[in-house]
Specification:
Low-confidence stretches: none
Distance between the termini: 41 Å
Strand content: 5-15%
Mean pLDDT: 77
Largest sheet: 3 strands, mixed
Structural class: mainly alpha
Order of helices and strands: HHHHEHEE
Number of helices: 5
């Protein structure tokens, strides 16, 4: 699958580059950088891939949005790093762009992870959804509901009670024990409960 996907990405990028260089897409795109074509191809292919996973139920819209933002951020960092590497290593045209692109993508990934953690922490404290990029869940966890003493059941797994005949058994004498009443206090806090989803954590 990886080899097939790489072949398709390369073929699409090469076809778009050839069309631009030949002037089929207009005179303005004749001097387009092949790195930009590759970046647009990657974004387009990733968008189709994520959209298919959302349509088949393998991924949520929030996860798709986060993946696309991460892809665009890293690709932009890679392109900028490629231009910087090309300017620094002007004697090595291809090698300079490759090294700069690699360094740019690594820096972009590191920066995105730091920014993502900061955004998640901000959303936990304020309850903001960041235009739907973070899902805020305000339902109580099942273990907390049971500790409160509320009876719950799952609609999907609920089964009616079956009839059981009564049986006779000799009673045995048991001593009563005294258990002092105690108060159990639990403090709920907001935290990350799944990918880009914030809820109550017991």
């Amino acid at each position: 699958m990886g080899g097939s996907e790489g072949f398709i990405r390369g073929s699409v990028a090469a076809a778009i580059t050839a069309c631009c260089k030949s002037g089929l897409l207009g005179e303005a795109l004749k001097d387009i950088n092949p790195g930009v074509v590759g970046a647009v191809t990657v974004i387009a292919m990733n968008t189709l891939k994520h959209a298919y996973q959302v349509a088949t139920g393998k991924k949520t819209r929030t996860e798709m949005s986060n993946e696309l933002i991460k892809d665009m951020f890293m690709i932009t960092s890679s392109i900028v790093g490629g231009y910087v590497g090309q300017a620094i290593l002007s004697e090595l045209p291809v090698v300079g762009y490759m090294i700069g692109s690699l360094v740019g993508s690594v820096i972009g990934s590191f920066t995105y992870n730091i920014g993502y953690k900061a955004v998640i922490s901000f959303c936990v404290d304020t309850g903001i959804t960041m235009v739907g990029l973070v899902d805020q869940d305000y339902s109580l966890p099942d273990d907390i509901i049971k500790d409160i003493g509320l009876a719950t059941f799952d609609y999907e797994t609920f089964k009616p009670e079956s009839f059981e005949p009564e049986t006779f058994g000799f009673e045995t004498f048991d001593f009563d024990t005294i258990q002092p009443d105690s108060i159990d206090i639990k403090y709920l806090r907001r935290g990350v409960i799944s990918i880009s989803k914030i809820g109550y954590v017991g």
